[in-house]
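INTERNAL AUDIT FORM
Audit reference: QA-55
Scope: verify that the stored structure record matches its stored sequence.
Auditor: D.O.
Record contents follow.
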Amino acid sequence: MPEPALVGVGLLPTGEDRKRIIQLEKATRSWGRWRGTLNESDCWPHLSLLHANVIDCENVVIRAARIVEESGIEKKILATVANAEYVERGWYFLNIASSGYIERLHRIIFNEMKNLIFPGVINDQSSLSHYRSVERESFLKYGYRYMLSAYHPHITLGRTNTKERSIEHDRLIPMIENYRGSRLCFDEIVIFRLGKNGVMLEKIWGKQLLGRAIDLGAEGSSTACARTFAG
């Protein structure tokens, strides 16, 4: 049997917003000492809707693409950066406020793919000691920390080389917090291969979101999508 592949479904910010996030990552790189770096070629900033360990990757991608096409996801998504967060072990996030909309997208995709997902394999349960109980349950059942009630919409800015809190944490968090309240426009939903530390290694399939943007800052209303990420 082939080794499981790690596949993700996620949302990409517009090219202009990706550049802003990459600029923030570069500005914090010396303080964070990240294990990997964001860029426009093979490590795009993204918001994951689902990560899954799968065996038959080709068929899973076909299935996931069909799910996305049939789900009616057509409109751009305009969201707000809620806050910066440090998460054990070594992760720094831009959390996204979603008013429940992104969580519903996560559940739509999860419900259709749950029978294709392999559970997490771990030899040392102590390595999950820093997980919240709901995250531990999610990982053991589905192989990913953030599923269902544990789902956590965010964009990963970086992970420290030491997998511990940065020694410059007290300078790093306020700098990231400067982006609280900034707006991000997501205009593509993608299926991708995941690399180490949650990086988007390779885009396999994508669908442009062309409809007038859904503004998650005022759920139920729409607004034209424009570049609004503060730089």
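Auditor finding: record pair retrieved intact. The radius of gyration is 17 Å.
Action required: none
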